[in-house]
Write a structure and sequence with these properties.
The complex is a heterodimer of chains A (309) and B (269). Helix content of chain A is 35%, strand content 25%. With 309 residues, chain A is α/β, with parallel strands linked by helices. In chain A, α3 packs across α4, α4 crosses α5 and α8 crosses α11. Chain A is elongated. Chain B is 77% helix and 0% strand. In chain B, α8 packs antiparallel against α10. The longest helix of chain B is centred in the middle third of the chain and has 35 residues. The chains are: A alpha/beta (309), B mainly alpha (269). Chains A and B meet through α2 and α3 of A and α1, α2 and α7 of B.
């Protein structure tokens, strides 16, 4: 940095500002603003129909926003000069012409993107489809189609990946492979935005979480923050005299539930507060276990109940 | 690793889109079937008509025999060939929307006008070459059938002009079909629209006032294209002069491609 030059700011690869999309009466995306940074896996979390896919289509310039803007690498997607070499996207794995082989599908895509054809076999290898490269896509299972969609996203060796529900339909081994791949991509300094309606998956993959519900951004935070703020901080308390213990903790403002095994599930108090109170009251403690709230709880807390998990 | 591809290669231009669209059409089985069927049915129809003429030949009056032109008769098959090649123009676009692959196409090539123009070029080139082959087949089949009969034989120069002329006009409706299908997005709807455009004016003509036949028909895309590419057939007074025919054909292309380009650019994929 030269003296006097502006302080280095956080690098932003995908920039979304007040993005809205209305289809007739339906508001699919409603004033969404967020940044996606390189070197991290950013999870885009929300129930089906919450606006994740529409947001991705808007970022990719497929749909026109009703208002607001989205840029990738500083430009609207439709102005990128070699889009497939900058951004790899997986939107709908089944949206492939069934009469073409996997290899030919990637071949037309490579030609369109100005990508050397050797990449076709390279990415087929990466996603484990080499053996079926010559087979018509029509006969592919959802899992195989997802792998092909992932191959298409990786084709241009892009610095940025936008993946909509990439593990949908994959077997546990496939899910693990995708997770490893995304972590590796982020570690290489690439930008990864990956959507899911499955929270467990995000818990193990994403560094940052964007939560979207009903087209609105409900949270833009780290995983730890999210579960700390909205996960309700549970403490498991086991005592030989549960009733006076429950009365004591309720009196201190905790929410106390009795579990099947007689243990108390306490929210609203820290383990330290509970331990101190028990000692002061002379009540014996056999177990005092703080548990981080799950992403599920954080999610339900943010979006409300009635959400498919 | 990631910088290799991004910095060492030129940005993909129209040639890349063209290569991509060629790969797509060449790997579409339905396209190959349509082309083959168009050529085979066209030559077959011509052979059938030729056979019917031959079977009744002895009953023809000397004047009718003298007026008979094997070349013009041989072109009867182009009605079928042209129809099927128009369907090919529809398929080249509807295959994108039917499979929802269009999203990937426009992610790879966000300059959507390039995709439309590349499809136009590929469809035009393919239907031109296939028509060349099919029309040559039609002319050849008639020639072989009428060899030894007392019919006027056209000069080689005239035969070549006819074959080239028909082939040159052949891409017009397939290209219009590309434009129409980008707007309608449905195979069934676009085929119906194209059949209406191809045959509607002729089917409706008997029900319309004479004015339609006398003044309107020659301005239609097919008639104008014939006036342009087959001027020797258009010595009849209804034909447009070539320069005017060229303008009219260009006008029709603009009338279909223009709205398609606008709709494609503005509408969500």
């Amino acid at each position: 940095m030269w003296p006097g030059s502006p302080a280095p700011s956080v690098i932003v690869v995908i920039k979304v500002r007040m993005l809205s999309k209305r289809y007739g009466e339906t508001v699919a995306v409603d004033g969404v603003t967020f940044d996606v940074q390189p070197g991290l896996v950013t999870g885009f979390l929300g129930p089906n129909g919450s606006g994740k896919s529409t947001t991705m289509r808007l970022i990719l310039g497929l749909d026109r926003p009703t208002s607001g803007s989205a840029t990738v690498h500083g430009r609207p997607y439709r102005e990128l000069r070699a889009p497939l070499r900058e951004v790899g996207a997986l939107l709908d794995a089944k949206a492939v012409h069934g009469n073409r082989s996997a290899r030919l599908h990637l071949t037309w895509l490579a030609r369109a993107g100005g990508i050397p054809l050797r990449r076709v076999d390279e990415v087929l290898e990466v996603v484990g489809l080499s053996a079926v490269a010559g087979r018509k896509v029509r006969g592919f299972s959802l899992g195989m189609s997802q792998r092909l969609g992932l191959a298409a996203a990786l084709l241009g060796d892009p610095a940025t990946l936008l993946l909509d529900e990439p593990v949908n339909g994959l077997d546990p081994d496939g899910i693990r492979q995708v997770r490893v791949l995304l972590r590796k991509m982020a570690a290489e300094g690439r930008t990864v935005l990956v959507s899911s309606h499955l929270m467990a998956e995000m818990e193990e993959t994403a560094d940052r979480i964007l939560v979207i519900g009903n087209g609105r951004l409900a949270a833009d935070t780290t995983l730890t923050e999210l579960t700390r703020q909205h996960g309700g901080g549970h403490v498991r308390v086991v005592s030989p005299s549960p009733e006076p213990m429950a009365a004591l903790l309720s009196g201190l403002g905790g929410d106390v539930l009795t579990e099947f095994d007689g243990a108390l599930d306490v929210t609203g108090l820290t383990a330290a507060q509970i331990g101190d109170a028990a000692a002061a009251a002379g009540l014996p403690l056999h177990e005092l276990t703080p548990a981080r709230g799950s992403l599920e709880e954080a999610f339900l807390d943010l979006i409300g109940p009635g959400v498919p998990a | 690793m990631s910088t290799d591809l991004r910095e060492s290669l030129p940005a993909p231009g129209f040639a890349a889109t063209l290569a991509s669209e060629w790969t797509k059409l060449a790997s579409l089985r339905s396209a190959r079937v349509t082309l083959l069927l168009g050529a085979v049915l066209g030559v077959g129809a011509t052979a059938l008509v030729g056979w019917a003429v031959l079977a009744t030949w002895t009953e023809w009056s000397p004047e009718d025999r003298a007026a008979f032109s094997p070349i013009e008769t041989s072109l009867i098959g182009t009605i079928l060939t042209g129809t099927l090649f128009t369907v090919l123009g529809v398929t080249a676009v509807s295959s994108e929307y039917g499979s929802r692959m269009a999203a990937l196409t426009f992610t790879a090539t966000p300059r959507r006008e390039r995709v439309l123009l590349a499809k136009v070029v590929v469809v035009a080139a393919v239907t031109f070459v296939a028509s060349l082959v099919a029309v040559a087949g039609m002319v050849l089949v008639t020639r072989v059938m009428f060899a030894g009969e007392d019919v006027p034989v056209a000069s080689t120069g005239r035969v070549l002009r006819v074959v080239l002329g028909v082939a040159a006009g052949a891409p017009l409706f397939p290209v219009i079909a590309v434009a129409v299908t980008f707007v309608l997005r449905s195979a069934a709807g676009s085929v119906a629209a194209m059949l209406g455009l191809l045959f509607g004016p002729y089917v409706l003509a008997p029900f319309l006032p004479h004015w339609w036949d006398d003044h309107a028909m020659r301005w239609l895309p097919g008639a104008a294209s014939d006036s342009l590419t087959l001027p020797h057939f258009a010595d009849s007074p209804d034909g447009l002069r070539p320069w005017l025919a060229a303008l009219v054909v260009a006008g029709w292309l603009a009338a279909f491609l223009g709205p398609a380009l606008i709709v494609l650019d503005r509408r969500d994929v």
